[in-house]
Amino acid sequence: MDPVTHTLLGLAVGETFFKSRLGSRALWVSAVAANLPDIDTVVLLTGDPSAVILRRSFGHSLALLPLWIAGLTWIFKRKYEDLETSDLAVMITAGCAGHLLFDLINSFGVQLLWPFSTARPEIGAIFIIDLALAGFLAAPHLARLKASWRPALGGLSGAALVAVAFYLALALSARQLAAGQLAEQTGGRGFQYVFPEPLGAHRWRGVVKEPGAWRTYLIDVSKRTAVPGPVFPDDAMTAPALAAKDTAFGRRLMTFFKAPVWTVEARPDGGAVVSVQDLRFVSLVLPRENPFRYEFDAPRGGEAEPRRVKIW
C-alpha cells in the first residue's frame, strides 16, 4: 500500500489500543512503526530502476523484521525514557504487522522469507492505492475539527478498523467471484489469474495464458460480466527470449513478475532486442503505460544480456 494508508492504519491502531494508556506519544510511535518495513525503499536511492526487485524484501522479511523492531524500540526508548520497553515493542510490532497485512492484500507481493526465498506471496484483493480503504481510516480524524468531538476519536478509530476488516472481507470474496467468472468465461483452460483494478473492489483484470499469447478480461463482479480486453502476443518460447530468461538478471526478474509478456524485435545484424513487461501492472481501467519494462540485447548466436531498463 501507499505510505499515506500505512500511516493512517498506524494512527488508527494507536488511537484504538494504546493512546488511552500511553498518551498521544502512542500515535507517533504507531505511525512510524506502520512504515518501518518500507526501510527497503532505500534501494531506490541507487537510481537503478531494476532495484525495484528488492522492494518488499529485507524490510518485510520475517527473518529480519525482529531486528528492525528492536532497533526502532531502542530509538524510541531513548526518546521516551518513561515508557516501558515492552509497551514500545508491542506498539511497533503491531504497526509492522498491519503493514505486512496491507502489503499482502495487493498484487505487488512480499518476500516474507528473504533472503532464504525470493518468492513473493500475495493475496491480490485490492489495488495498491485504494481510496475507499484510505477513506475509512481517514474519516475518524474529522473529529479533530471540533474540540468537543475529539474524545470520541478512539471509538471512531476502532469503528474504522472494523469497517476496514469488512471491506477486506468483501474484496476477498469479490476476488473469488472474479476468478470464478474468468474460469466460466474461458472454460478454465491454461494459467489464469485475476488482479485488482483501481477505483473499486468490483472490477478485476483477468489474464489467461495461451500458446503464444496472453488474453485479458475486464471482470465486473457486480454485473457478472467478463469482457475480453487486449490480446498480448508472447514470444516467451523463442530462442532470444529463452536466452534472456536464462541470464542472472532474467532469473531475478522472474521472481518479481507474475504474468510476463515477452516481445522479440529482430535487428538487421541477426540479433534481437528482447523486452518484457508484467500484466499485473497493465490496467484496463486507467490508461497508462506499464511502469516496469525491461530490455535485453540478444546477439545472434550469443548469450543475452540486460541492455536497457525502462521505468515510467
Question: Can you describe this structure?
Answer:
- This protein has 312 residues and is of the alpha+beta class.
- It folds into 3 domains: 3-123, no CATH class; 176-232; 235-311, no CATH class.
- The protein contains 8 helices and 8 strands; from the N terminus they run H-H-H-H-H-H-E-E-E-E-H-H-E-E-E-E.
- The protein has helices at residues 3-22, 25-33, 65-79, 85-104, 131-138, 153-186, 239-245, 248-254, and strands at 192-196, 203-210, 213-220, 225-233, 260-266, 272-278, 292-298, 305-311.
- The strands form 2 sheets. A 4-stranded antiparallel beta sheet has the order 1-2-3-4, with helices on one face. A 4-stranded antiparallel beta sheet has the order 5-6-7-8.
- Helix 1 (3-22) packs antiparallel against helix 2 (25-33), helix 1 runs antiparallel to helix 6 and helix 3 crosses helix 4 (85-104).
- It is globular.
- It starts with a helix and ends with a strand.
Write the layout of secondary structure elements.
Elements: H1 3-22, H2 25-33, H3 65-79, H4 85-104, H5 131-138, H6 153-186, E1 192-196, E2 203-210, E3 213-220, E4 225-233, H7 239-245, H8 248-254, E5 260-266, E6 272-278, E7 292-298, E8 305-311
Antiparallel strand pairs: 1-2, 2-3, 3-4, 5-6, 6-7, 7-8
Helix pairs in contact: 1-2, 1-4, 1-5, 1-6, 2-4, 3-4, 5-6
Give a short summary of the structure.
The protein is of the alpha+beta class. Helices cover 38% and strands 19% of the residues.
